[in-house]
Amino acid sequence: MNKYDVMVIGSGPGGYVAAIRCSQLGLRTGIVERNEIGGICLNWGCIPSKSLLRNAEILSLFHRAHEFGISYDNLEVDFSVAIDRSRKVVGQLTRGVGSLLQKNKIDHIQGDASLTGPNSIQIEGSGESYEADHFILATGASPKTLPSLPIDGELVITSREALETTELPESILIVGGGATGCEFAYIYNSYGVKVTMVELLPKILPNEDPDISQYLERIFTKQGIEVRTNSKVLNFSTEKGKAKVELEGPEGKETVLFNKILVATGVEGNIQSLGLESLGIKTERGFIQIDDEMKTTSPSIYAIGDVTGKMLLAHVASAQGVFVAEHIAGKNPSPLNYTVIPRAVYCQPQVASWGISEPQANELNLKFKIGRFPFSANGKALGLGEGDGFVKVIVGEEYGELLGAHLIGPEVTEILAELSIANLLEGTVKEVGLQIHAHPTLSEAVKEAALAAEGEAIHI
Fold first, then answer.
1. Which end of the chain is more exposed for a tag (fewer CB within 10 A), N or C?
2. CATH number for the domain harbouring residue 241
3. Distance between CA 443 and CA 375 in Å, rounded?
């Protein structure tokens, strides 16, 4: 029988989570995947890149060994081992996801699915047809290409090729200063590659609070990464196996040679061949349009994750997947509040945030105050030799409610959750400041930033 309650198309962090939650709620569920289980994030995104970042962190510590009284000779670095390790991590996790699907009795169908009606799909190649009361589209997104920089997979690459290329270039131009660009800039720089980053907008990490972006740019410059904001690529050609690039920035035009170019300028939804047009499912700028319940313009068809362009983060896709599953099952789940969903960048120093920035608070004419505490005054951070960065909280002036949290520094992607749970429980900056933290810990910086908003910080 090829009839299901729910059929999920795509097995990334949105798709497989949605499928598992549907099955938990008693819905007969199938999942279609054209490539590897786990989708882009697990196979060619979040997970392998974080594995490489760990290698880069260790190598960076070696470069600073003299600070800890450690010396060595003949350091050997093999980037191919880092790539191999990342693939092993991916393999372990993809097998785990496959086991979870089996455990939850979810049928896995391999192939490329196309909608043939509001309640039916066909698998390309096999010609098999399947019916379902509801479909969840979770097909993800792919790197966006630029007309001036055609991707050839060798000289001009995307993050996909970067995650499997074992040879390091002498120099690389990274086009795009978002999370992907910043993470690869840190990785390549740690391995001794001469890195130049070009960002069209006035700051890298353009979606972050300006204090965070400016601080990271200063640290990157200190690390040896050349950051060019308000800049763009005008022309590209090849010369003796290298990329010849004409750049334009505040200081004019310049032609520079690079061994490789990494294009990290965003993504576009994987909507081709899904059959959306025949059902009148609306798209905009290459993404599927959804309402607050993740419904498309076809009532039986939902869409989640990067294919919607809503918020391009794996954990957002997972949260959307759980919401849709519970909505289909009649559980009446709470709507997602995208403003307070955490964001994270895993270069060093790390960046983590949620909520509104200081400029946004001003634009909304809110009455607010700011609490700030530097890691240079945190005992654990100094003991680790990681004193760069700070915690910044934006707080409502009258009631002390948390409006935004913006962190840069050691392991801030982990300690942000404390402020998230305080917000979820409708806590104020007062409660965060009252919470006793173990000493010495990095999270003490969160407590001190909360106290600083009230003018009560102890250690600064």
1. N
2. 3.50.50.60
3. 10
CATH number at residue 423: 3.30.390.30
Question: Do 110 and 160 share a structural domain?
Answer: no
Inside any domain, residue 344: no
Closest CA to 256 of 338, 327, 322, 172: 172
Which residues, in sequence order, are bridge partners of residue 217?
none
Alpha helices in 329-443 (DSSP H): 358-363, 379-384, 412-424, 429-434
In one letter, which amino acid is 201?
Answer: L
User: Bridge partners of 256?
Assistant: 245
d(CA 10, CA 214): 37
Phi-psi region of 419 (alpha: psi -120 to 50; beta: other; left: phi over 0): alpha
Distance from the first to the final alpha carbon of the chain: 68
Residue 437 annotated as catalytic: no
* pLDDT tens digits, one per residue of 200-258: 999 999 999 999 999 999 999 999 999 999 999 999 999 999 999 999 999 999 999 99
Is pTM, for the whole model, over 0.90?
A: yes
Looking at 108, 134, 439, 459, which residue is catalytic? 439
**What is the helix (H) or strand (E) element at residue 446, kind and residue range?**
helix 444-453
Distance CA(450)–CA(16), nearest Å, equals: 38
Q: Are strands 283-284 and 260-263 parallel, antiparallel or unpaired?
A: unpaired
Nearest to 413 by CA among 318, 323, 315: 315
For residue 405, list its beta bridge partners.
354, 393
Instruction: Determine, yes or no, domain membership for 150.
Output: no
pLDDT tens digit sequence for 147-195 = 889 999 999 999 999 999 999 999 999 999 999 999 999 999 999 999 9
Structural domain for 202, as ranges: 156-265
Name the token pair of 362. Answer: 């001003």
Q: Are residues 20 and 102 in the same domain?
A: yes
Whether residues 276 and 135 share a domain: the answer is: yes
Residues 445, 373 share a domain: yes
- CA 417 – CA 425 distance, rounded (Å): 12
